[in-house]
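We emphasize that the prediction below concerns an isolated chain of 141 residues; any contacts that depend on oligomerization or on bound cofactors are therefore not represented. The input was used exactly as deposited, without trimming of termini.
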Amino acid sequence: MTTTAAAPTTAAGRTTEAAGRLRTVLLADGAVTAAVGVAALATAGTLATELPGSTTAVRVVAALLVVVGVDVALAARVRSARLALAGTVVGEAALGWAVVSTAVVLVAGASGPVTAAVLAVAAVSVAFGVTELRLARRLRA
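Result of the prediction step, given as a token string:
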């Protein structure tokens, strides 16, 4: 016989649930961010022909994405008192990244496949950012 967990009915239960979800989202965001960085490192030469900047500049940004991805994943492990702040900072950074990367690819006039890839990553960043901000707000409530 399987049982399903009932939804928490207390404020403490909802907070614990939101904290668990935020930790999971931060881990996923970190993994995706690092994976995008690795993919950008692997294709830096091609990307540099499509985007403003040199291959070195693309590699630096890609390496920073890997480092940021690891840092975001580690943010999931902060103590509970700081989790809402971590979610807010990471969520706002995700939204900022989406805006900046979209602007760069559109202004640069990159090819269709590069533009589509960057816009897809931006959409995922928006989804992570909005989710992180909502869960962080729930933790503060």
